[in-house]
Design brief:
This protein has about 400 residues and is an alpha+beta fold. The chain is about 35% helix and about 25% strand. The strands form 4 sheets. The protein has a 7-stranded mixed sheet with strand order 1-2-4-3-5-15-6. It has a 4-stranded antiparallel sheet with strand order 10-12-8-13. α2 runs antiparallel to α4 (about 115-130), α6 runs antiparallel to α8 and α9 (about 315-330) packs across α11 (about 385-400). The model is unreliable at about 1-15 (pLDDT under 50). Bound molecules: zinc ion (ZN) (2 copies).
Length: about 400
């Protein structure tokens, strides 16, 4: 389902031609980043490469914005609004298993989420729009955000003034998405990506001899009951029309088969689409764990870890993105129905501050074996997705900033 099938749509056919002319450079950029992945909060070389590239095409560049963040400002020929284009830049602690010549050169680190493609797309949009300054009434602010995978990169950038001087009026960003076929695009207004909250539950009992349980308080039994009881937070306490997730991802406790443990540690994550559901899940998990543990003479203590609000798309900016996407891939390739994701992304922090749209660009191609899930050691993207992303963002910017 390549976009080229819909080539030369009525509006601005030159956009596609210009994107096509830059395809080789776009792929090179992506592969260059792919070979040199850096983990969250360690993106020194990545940030430096981005800043160098932006300076090379004549943008005003700020480095070290809220840590490893980079902001490139493109001023249009005439004054006007400011559109922000966001790309995340970090990789994951995954050891790549793909046998490709652009595979990661850093053992144990990999761009296994597609952020290498996001950077390449944003830089290529910057190149194109820098050439088309005359067409722009207003500014485009390119925001390269570190530490998305730990959901702690956007907030420091906002605090450091990434959205000011000039003030950002709207923000767009994309995520390459392998579950979606290349050539498909998805976006919808309202909550689009879920909030996420990591938690740790410590269940304390009283250790002792496994043959004499009456002298102990068994935290493993209490932890097991808590895991089961926590399933009612969604099934019995949350409206069927409010999606939510409670997942326990780790459970650790005990040392031997004949010893009752002193303590069990549970770790997990909560997902929701509204602040009300999110806050209630966190509060009720703590209450429920305390109640269940207490009934079994144990104690439970909930510690809230890293968290991220839900990504909420603005109606008007989502319509703008969907018009650009329709011009790029055709109406039949815009995903219909409910396309929300229970994953989360701290693009949400920018979208809380300014109206915007975070959208998905299909990057999977099962026929060519490109269908590994995100964060998998065999993850890859269909590179045909790259020019699609560039074209959509370029069209959206041209429309938002007039011609
Ligand atoms: Zn990811
Ligand atoms: Zn990602």
């Amino acid at each position: 389902m390549p976009a080229t099938k819909h080539a030369l749509s009525r509006s601005a056919p030159d956009v596609r031609a210009v994107v096509a002319a830059r395809r080789a450079g776009l792929v090179d950029l992506r592969r260059g980043f792919h070979m040199r992945p850096e983990l969250s909060l360690e993106e020194h070389e990545t940030a430096a490469a981005i800043a160098k590239h932006l300076r090379g095409i004549g943008l005003e560049v700020r480095e070290g914005v809220g840590g490893m963040g980079v902001v490139g400002l493109l001023r249009g020929a005439r004054p006007g609004r400011t559109l922000m284009i966001r790309a995340d830049i970090d990789a994951l602690p995954v050891h790549e298993l793909n046998a490709v010549d652009y595979a990661s050169r850093a053992p144990g680190k990999m761009h296994a989420c597609g952020h290498d493609g996001h950077m390449a797309i944003a830089l290529t949009v910057a190149e194109i729009l820098a050439d088309w300054r005359d067409r722009l009434a207003g500014n485009v602010k390119f925001v390269f955000q570190p530490a998305e995978e730990r959901a702690c990169g956007a907030e420091p950038m906002v605090a450091a003034g990434a959205l000011r001087d000039p003030d950002v009026d709207a923000a767009i960003g994309l995520h390459l998405w392998s579950p979606l076929h290349v050539g498909e695009v998805a976006a919808q207004p309202g909550p689009f990506w879920a909030s996420a909250d990591m938690f740790t539950l410590r269940v304390r009992g009283k250790g002792g001899h496994g043959a004499m349980p009456q002298t102990t308080v068994d935290p493993i039994l209490a932890a097991a009951q808590i895991v089961v009881a926590a399933q009612t937070l969604v099934s019995r306490e949350t409206s069927p029309f409010d999606p939510a997730v409670v997942t326990f991802g780790a459970i650790h406790g005990g040392t031997a088969s004949n010893v009752v443990a002193d303590e069990v540690e549970l770790r997990g994550t909560l997902r929701a689409f509204t602040p009300a559901v999110r806050d209630r899940l966190v509060r009720r998990l703590g209450e429920l764990a305390n109640g269940v543990a207490g009934a079994l003479r144990a104690e439970a203590e909930l510690t809230r870890g890293e968290g991220c609000i839900a990504c909420v798309n603005d109606v008007a900016i989502t319509e703008l993105v969907l018009r650009a996407a329709t011009a790029t891939v055709g109406k039949d390739h815009i995903s219909q129905g409910d396309t929300r994701l229970s994953a989360s992304d701290d693009m949400a922090v920018f979208l809380q501050a300014v109206p915007g749209c975070y959208f998905l660009v299909g990057a999977g191609n099962p026929e060519r074996g490109i269908d590994a899930p995100h964060h998998n050691a065999r993850f890859d993207i269909a590179e045909d997705a790259l020019p699609i992303g560039v074209e959509i963002m370029t069209r959206a910017a041209l429309e938002y900033l007039g011609r």
